[in-house]
Each structure stands twice: as C-alpha cells, then as structure tokens.
C-alpha cells in the first residue's frame, strides 16, 4: 500500500478522525514481501464432483494431480518432498500425526494463484456452517451442521474483476443448477460506504464459497477515504500502538495499480 494524498480520498486533517480510524497498517521489514496466496487447500468428499465443479462450473484450470499417504515416507515417494520435516521419518512419531491416503488436485485461477482439493475417505458429510450462514441460500444451509466452535477456515471467497462479473457468475451458477444467494452489497445505511459486492454458494462437498469484487475500475475509488474501512470502535491494541496521528490511510494495491 501507499499513502493517500488528499485528492485521492485521504483525510485532509487526520487529527479529526476518531482514534479507531488511525490504524498502524504496515510495520516491519516484511512489509510488501507477501505477493499473494500461493495455494489454498480444502477437503472434498468426491474428487469427480470437485473437478467437475471447479473446472467446469467455476472455470479453473487443472495444473497438478497427486495421491499420497500423509506420512513422511508417503510425502517423499508420492508428493516429491525432498527436504524439510518430510525428509526425516522421526516426524511420524508426532502424537497428532494421521496416516491416511489423500488424492489432491491443484487448480489455477486467472491470476496464477492456486486452489487445491484433498479427497479423503473420512471427510464429514455435513461440515459445520460458517458463522454468518444467514448470507447463504437455504440449500447450502441444509448441507451443514451447527458449528460447535469456530473453524480454522470459515469460508473462501474468489475474486473477480468487476461487479458485472459477480452478476454474471450468479446467473451462470443458477443456469448450472447451483443454489446461490442474491448479490450482497456493503454500502451502509447512508449508501456511502464502499467495500465488495458478493454472492454466496457452496460446492458439492458443502464447502461454503463466495465470489466477490471490489469493482476496481470504478473511478469513485480514486476519491474514497479508506479510513472508513476501520469500523471497529474498540480495535485490539496492536492496531493502535505506534500509529501516527498524522499518517493518512494507505491506498490498497489494486487501486494504485489502476492509476499507474
């Protein structure tokens, strides 16, 4: 991110902003070094269903397939791990280790990032619902169980280029018989807030999914005050410690890319 100028929507007087909107957004030598998500992995009950959904319905490209036992030996022999913990059989003595065989397929998205599925025989037939399940259509909710506790992954949202693409995907999913929500906006009570527009659905294994867009080509982003995104009026102290009273909000990379 880069700092906003006043013309690009940065507040002309950050002292006038409430404290919770003056956030320390970047810190440390790693700032900017993470370029994106290399890959994500989710479980599928049936890989045939998964491939036909992610390749044929969502349009992702299959780029890698493998099947391996989840032991160090299995990772070496079938998943080609050649260094790290998998190179040592001692890793298998861990009390949390599991010994199952999984099939894995990697899919490439349009920006080159990867998404992957594991097929395993013990995947639950009714995974826990996301915490904001009200956003999903009724048919998705019927696939889920009530969560006993929050999951380490709640749901996954895929990015598309524009609001029009969100609308296109909603119509496309409906034409494929996939239950999908209405388009969800986040404009707030005064219709001035800006964030993403989304649709909600699930894959054949019940994994909760979303397709979203910032609609980055919309010129209104060039004059938007991104401190408006800091809504939590009681943020954790790590977000406030060391934050400058004078620092303007930073422009997201996807806005900067449109202006360069």
From TrEMBL:
Domain of life of the organism encoding this protein: Bacteria
Record domain VOC: where: 36-214
Region annotation (Disordered) ranges: 73-92
InterPro entries in UniProt: Glyas_Bleomycin-R_OHBP_Dase (IPR029068), Glyas_Fos-R_dOase_dom (IPR004360), GlyoxalaseI/FosfomycinResist (IPR050383), VOC_core (IPR037523)
PANTHER family: GLYOXALASE DOMAIN-CONTAINING PROTEIN 5 (PTHR21366:SF14), GLYOXALASE FAMILY PROTEIN (PTHR21366)
Protein name: VOC domain-containing protein
Organism for this UniProt entry: Paraburkholderia largidicola
């Amino acid at each position: 991110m880069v700092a906003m100028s006043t013309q690009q929507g940065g507040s002309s007087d950050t002292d006038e902003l409430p404290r919770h909107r003056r956030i320390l957004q970047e810190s440390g030598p790693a700032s900017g070094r993470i370029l994106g998500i290399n890959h994500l992995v989710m479980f599928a009950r049936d890989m045939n269903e998964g491939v036909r959904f992610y390749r044929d319905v969502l349009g992702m490209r299959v780029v890698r397939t493998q099947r391996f036992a989840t032991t160090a030996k299995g990772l070496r022999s079938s998943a080609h791990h050649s260094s790290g913990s998998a190179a040592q059989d001692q890793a298998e003595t861990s009390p949390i280790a599991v010994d199952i065989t999984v099939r894995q397929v990697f899919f490439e998205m349009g920006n080159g990032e990867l998404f992957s599925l594991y097929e395993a025989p013990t995947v639950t037939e009714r995974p826990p619902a996301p915490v904001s399940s009200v956003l999903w259509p009724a048919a998705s909710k019927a696939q889920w169980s009530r969560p006993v506790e929050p999951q380490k992954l709640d749901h996954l949202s895929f990015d598309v280029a524009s609001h029009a693409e969100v609308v296109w995907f909603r119509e496309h999913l409906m034409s494929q018989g996939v239950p999908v929500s209405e388009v969800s906006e986040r404009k707030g009570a005064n219709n001035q807030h800006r964030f993403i527009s989304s649709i909600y659905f699930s894959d054949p294994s019940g994994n909760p999914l979303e397709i979203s867009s910032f609609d980055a080509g919309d010129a209104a982003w060039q004059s938007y005050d991104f401190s408006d995104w800091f809504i939590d009026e009681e943020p954790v102290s790590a977000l406030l410690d060391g934050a400058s009273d004078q620092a303007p909000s930073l422009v997201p990379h996807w806005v900067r890319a449109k202006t360069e």
